[in-house]
Specification:
The complex is a heterotrimer of chains A (103), B (151) and C (267). By secondary structure, chain A is mostly beta strands. Chain A has no helices and seven strands. Chain A has one domain: Immunoglobulin-like. A four-stranded antiparallel β-sheet of chain A has the order 4-3-6-7, with no helix packed on it. Chain B has three helices and nine strands, in the order αααβββββββββ. Chain B is globular and about 40 Å long. The termini of chain B are far apart. About 17% of the residues of chain B have low confidence. Chain C folds into two domains: 96 residues, Cytochrome c-like domain (Cytochrome Bc1 Complex, Chain D, domain 2), CATH 1.10.760; 115 residues, Orthogonal Bundle (Cytochrome Bc1 Complex, Chain D, domain 2). Chain C is built from ten helices and seven strands. In chain C, helix 7 packs across helix 10. The longest helix of chain C is centred in the middle third of the chain and has 15 residues. About 3% of the residues of chain C have low confidence. The chains are: A mainly beta (103), B alpha+beta (151), C mainly alpha (267). The interface between A and C is small, with 12 and 10 residues.
Chain lengths: 103, 151, 267
């Protein structure tokens, strides 16, 4: 089971700025290991986020996103107390969802 | 390494799931393999349905002038324009140009940041895919340096 | 203390870069880059893991680390980072944070500290020690270093650390002082802090543990010292060895008054 994300969501002026740190190798598939074999690509492909259960964000990522990726986005209409959940799914089908409360 | 067949099957499954979940609009968001395999900015934007490519002062790419290490380079794409379907972030000289594609909807600002790997100094692009099929871009050069002993 | 590029080097760099960059030195550009990464430091992922490990009952004794004494009493975590290394009566040794964590893991949880010491960095329980150290350091973020030199052994370790700092050896006849013994030294674009005195807030001893973006690894002070020795072409020091703790004592005492920024983000 993958390590938890760090999600910070702050409300200001009716919007919520959400900053997420995810724990993931984001292996590009370009590297070779010490034996000369290509390390297989393993990366987050889809990222979605919900506000109080309703989808607000969806994104597709490629292997060029950095390891232990960071993402920031702004939900148009949100307030303190709302629940933000972020889900990622990688190319192996593994997935992780974490939640945070807008402060 | 995932085979092509597995990738296509995966895309179909995802599209199916999204459609049945009641998000027909998002069903198009199944992993755009062609986009992520593209080697040029033009090919990547074509894969997202854009028919024309033009520089625009209304699109902003945020990135540092110089990155101490290409493994983690912060970059963001934003625009205040209306009618944007997606915001793409691309690194021109990467083996595959497209880093990330964010779907723009009425629930989020068209303003996204993430961090990318850069193989070498390169232009970094923000591309707004418009609903009318145009693609508007802005770019910035980011120099990548290695640095010394890691102190 | 930021080293200042000699005017000639800055000028040469400005000429070498595109016209748009001529107004900014490479050093300034890198500072901006680091500032952009400071918010959302992946070290936070290790902090969260460390906090979890502190509170979770684990090991043969199925106990948590919440009674671990890191120098300010059992269970006290805030403020301990900037007072380590220090002498501990129960082990009769001067210990740094990581060796002390390993001691607590043995005493409270039943792990084998010697086995942990032999585990490579980044693996198994050693990775857990690093995560714990990351969290403990975060609990002292912004506080100023203030190591004790009241116990005789603490004084001895300082002196031993000083000797080791200047001791030249290995195939290249390097010492720590070769890189860190003078103001204004750098390797390529990495400024090297002077460590014979306080290098200032957030530099040197005050900047580790740190997340290294170049390899996506969390580096503790023990690993930092280990890698310094590797670069000097010395044999690897043992984890938690007297040599590494003596050096940490020297660096930590010298850093008195400097504010800690650990866990930091580094190239």
């Amino acid at each position: 089971m993958a390590d938890p994300m760090r999600i910070r969501a702050q409300a200001a002026g009716g919007k919520a700025t959400v900053r997420v740190l995810m724990s993931h190798e984001m292996e590009s598939g370009q590297r070779k290991d010490a034996a000369g074999k290509t390390v297989p690509a393993w990366f987050i492909q889809e990222v979605t986020a919900t506000l109080n259960g309703k989808q607000v964000l969806s994104a597709e990522w490629g292997p060029a996103v950095a390891k232990n990726p960071f993402m920031q986005f702004s939900i148009k209409s949100a307030k303190a107390g709302d629940k933000v959940a972020v889900t990622w799914k990688d190319n192996k089908g593994e997935t992780r969802t974490d939640e945070a409360t807008v402060s | 390494m995932q085979t092509r067949r597995e990738t296509l099957k995966h895309s179909a499954v995802v599209a199916g799931l999204l459609a049945t979940a009641g998000y027909p609009g998002f069903a198009m968001a199944a992993f755009n393999k062609a986009g992520f395999d593209a080697k040029t900015v033009q090919d990547a934007t074509k894969a997202f349905g854009a028919s024309s490519l033009a520089e625009s002062k209304d699109v902003t790419i945020t990135a540092p002038d110089i990155a101490e290490n290409g493994a983690v380079v912060p970059m963001g794409a934003s625009t205040a324009l209306a009618g944007v379907k997606q915001l793409l972030i691309l690194v021109e000289k990467n083996p595959s140009t497209l880093v990330a594609a964010f779907n723009v909807s009425d629930t989020v600002d068209a303003n996204f940041s993430t961090r990318a790997k850069m193989g070498q100094s390169s232009d970094v692009y923000a591309v707004a895919i418009m609903a009318d099929g145009k693609a508007l871009w802005a770019k910035k050069e980011v120099k990548v340096t290695l640095g010394g002993c890691g102190g | 203390m930021k080293t200042v590029f000699p005017l000639s080097i800055a000028a040469a760099m400005a000429l070498a870069l595109t016209p748009a960059m001529a107004q900014k030195t490479a050093s300034q550009g890198i500072d901006e880059y680091r500032a952009m990464l400071a918010d959302g430091n992946p070290a936070e992922l290790f902090e969260a893991k460390g906090e979890d490990l502190w509170k979770k009952a684990r090991g043969p004794k199925n106990a948590s680390l919440e009674k671990c004494d890191l120098g300010k009493g059992p269970g006290v975590v805030k403020g301990v980072f900037v007072e380590l290394p220090r002498f501990f009566a129960d082990t009769q040794r001067v210990q740094d944070l990581e060796s002390r964590l390993a001691s607590c893991m043995e005493m409270l949880q039943g792990f084998n500290a010697a086995e942990i010491a032999k585990t490579p960095f980044g693996r198994g329980e050693m990775a857990n020690v690093t995560a714990l150290a990351t969290w403990v350091s975060a609990e002292s973020k912004g506080l100023k270093f203030n190591l004790s030199q009241s116990h005789t052994q603490e004084k001895t370790f300082y002196e031993v650390g000083k000797r080791l700092f200047f001791q030249r050896g290995g195939t290249h006849d390097f010492s720590c002082a070769s890189c860190h013994g003078e103001e204004g030294k750098r390797i390529r674009l990495q400024d090297l802090p002077i460590l014979t005195k306080s290098p200032g807030d957030g530099l040197g001893f005050a900047a580790w543990p740190a997340y290294r973006v170049s390899n996506g690894q969390m580096w503790s002070m023990q690993l930092r010292l280990n890698d310094c020795y590797r670069q000097q072409r010395f044999p690897y020091p043992g984890f938690g060895s007297d040599a590494t703790i003596a050096l940490s004592t020297y660096l930590g005492v010298n850093a008195k008054g400097a504010a800690s920024i650990a866990p930091a983000i580094k190239r």
